[in-house]
Specification:
- The radius of gyration is 18 Å and the shape is globular.
- The relative contact order is 0.17.
- 42% of the residues lie in helices and 25% in strands.
- It is built from eleven helices and 13 strands.
- It is of the alpha/beta class and 276 residues long.
């Protein structure tokens, strides 16, 4: 099948996946202070994190334009799009608008847009699932049914080390955020119907990560074959989580990636996200 998987820059692949998945990425725009940054992977994560830390204001993000998607839709006969949750961004709607633009100009062809109902590593796993389905010689419509079922069963859990962005974005009051950080409270969060929801609070990072791993067997299906881990500038912490997962469960594959650009903005320094 001649196909391409189009993803936003919220989706990060490791070096191996970049070589094996036929994908095209469209960039978000990040505004840090007065600086606009095109999220095309050219800005090192550590530099971005430093800019975020120095900024008194929340980092603003703008989703890829319909034109960005439109241009990528020309690259293959069959197009599968994976977007960050439509509850978190306008990316899904932008991809839909681009499809309508394409049909009006060139006529219809196969373009399907998956709403991940999550972000970062969940998008990566969805792209991998699409490739597997195509490799299994499924038709485009069969791929859609197969992957939509997969998305419905997905779970995402994450622990944030730094609450600064939540405070700056108004998702947590400054007083509550300072109080939580003074007490070393770490929130364990999840995605429910595409929205971020608090699961539990733990005292300290180690306890939070340990509890997050325990929740894999409680919050979802721990018999799935693959689980993904993404970290923001925290490779040792991610490796520790990987080892805890290997000890507790029997996943056939554990995929690890580093957060870039938009993922780093959402996760902030030290953040860990898992999806399965």
């Amino acid at each position: 099948m001649d196909y391409k998987i189009v993803v936003g820059s919220s989706c990060d692949f490791n070096d191996e996946l970049k070589k094996t998945i036929p994908y095209a990425s469209v960039p978000f725009t990040l505004t840090v202070g007065s600086e606009d940054i095109v999220d095309d992977g050219s800005l090192p994560v550590k530099s971005l994190l430093e800019k975020m830390k120095m900024s008194a204001n929340a980092v603003k993000t703008a989703c890829p334009s319909p034109q960005h998607f439109f241009d990528k839709y020309k690259e293959a006969e069959n197009i599968f799009v994976v977007t960050i949750s439509s509850k978190l961004s306008g990316t899904y709607n932008s991809a839909i608008s681009a499809r309508n633009m394409y049909f009006e100009q060139f006529g219809e062809k196969f373009i399907h847009i998956f709403d991940s109902l999550s972000a970062v590593i969940a998008e990566t796993l969805i792209a991998m699932k699409i490739k597997e389905a195509v490799d299994d010689n499924m038709t485009p419509s069969q791929v859609v049914d197969h992957v939509e079922d997969y998305i419905k069963g997905m779970k995402t859990l994450f622990v944030l080390e730094n609450l600064d962005n939540l405070i700056k974005n108004g998702r947590m009051s400054r007083l509550a955020g300072i109080f939580a950080q003074l007490l070393l409270i770490k929130p364990i969060l999840t995605a429910v119907d595409g929205e971020i929801v608090l699961v539990e609070k733990s005292r300290g990072s180690k306890n939070a990560l340990k509890r997050m791993v325990e929740l894999i067997g409680i919050e979802g299906d721990a018999t799935r074959k693959r689980i993904g881990i993404i970290h923001c500038n925290a490779p040792e912490k991610a490796e520790s989580v990987k080892n805890m997962i290997k000890e507790a469960y029997n996943f056939e594959e554990i995929v690890m990636t580093d957060a870039q650009g938009l993922g780093a903005v959402y996760m902030d320094n030290g953040g860990i996200v898992i999806a399965y």
